Amino acid sequence: MRKHMWAVVVMALVIALGLLVVVAVPSVLAGDDEREGPKVIDRDSVAYGRTYSEWSAAWEQWSDSIPVAQHPLFTDGDCSVGQSGPVWFLGGKFCANGANCSYTGVVRSCNVPSEKALYFPILNGEDSALEESVAENPGNETYQQIATMRSYEDAGLSAAKVSCWVDGAPIRHLKERFRVQSPAFGFTLPTDNLLKAIYGNPNFLAGTYFPAVDDGYYVMLAPLPPGPHRLHFRGVVDGFALDITYYLNVTK
Asked: N or C: less crowded end of the chain, CB within 10 Å?
């Protein structure tokens, strides 16, 4: 399996937010079958100053920036690591190369401040010129081109099965409404980085790299009311299965 392959989903980073203007929560899906369900911000909205596509790039930048020893998607640790601004990221599960761990039955507890939207992938795929040059197809620059990397990720995701529930209520029409492709983006790796761990390759050195691309099924939840909540999502693609449950405590 590749780096982020289909491993995924949640927490919030905002690298280099710059001057972010906090805006009112955008429109939520409002079909008759969704009024009583989770309040999900529409994929085509501009949410908190960014599109879904731009938030997907930010999710990857957040994930790449965190050292493995502190990474909540490796260690099931503190979900507040790397979080800032009005949107927090959540995610799925990363396993180090050769580790005996599972991507299913993962359960996490997370304290979330009130008024924070939650952005996460149910399933996503990522590729970068760095990964292609170091581990995937070294010496072949064709695989380092943006169009080639996009086509690689697209092939598997189109056949994926995805589902998500918030407090037992399903988010509907995920495949039709929540497929998101990021713009090409740059990212920064620390010394103790996730690519080195996932590939088991010491040649993934600290530094800033470009380009990378992401493709996946992402959801942004509008801020949840204070109190306990349960977020559960599943994804299956090409024989890979992910099953994650978050017990969220939204604090006042």
From this structure: C
Give the model confidence (pLDDT) of 107-139 as tens digits: 999 999 999 999 999 999 999 999 999 999 999
Q: Which helix (H) or strand (E) holds 188?
A: strand 185-189
DSSP H helices in 35-134: 52-65, 72-75, 129-131
What does the alpha-carbon distance between residue 9 and residue 121 come to, in Å, rounded to a whole number? 4
Q: Is residue 3 part of a domain?
A: no
The residue segments making up the domain with residue 95 are 9-251
Going by the DSSP 8-state scheme, the letter that residue 134 receives in this structure is I
Residue 136: inside a domain, yes or no?
Answer: yes
Give CA angle at 52 (47, 58), nearest 5°: 100
Structural domain count of the chain = 1
Does any domain span residue 4? no
- pLDDT value at position 19? 31
239: left (phi over 0), alpha (psi -120 to 50) or beta: left
- 118 inside domain: yes
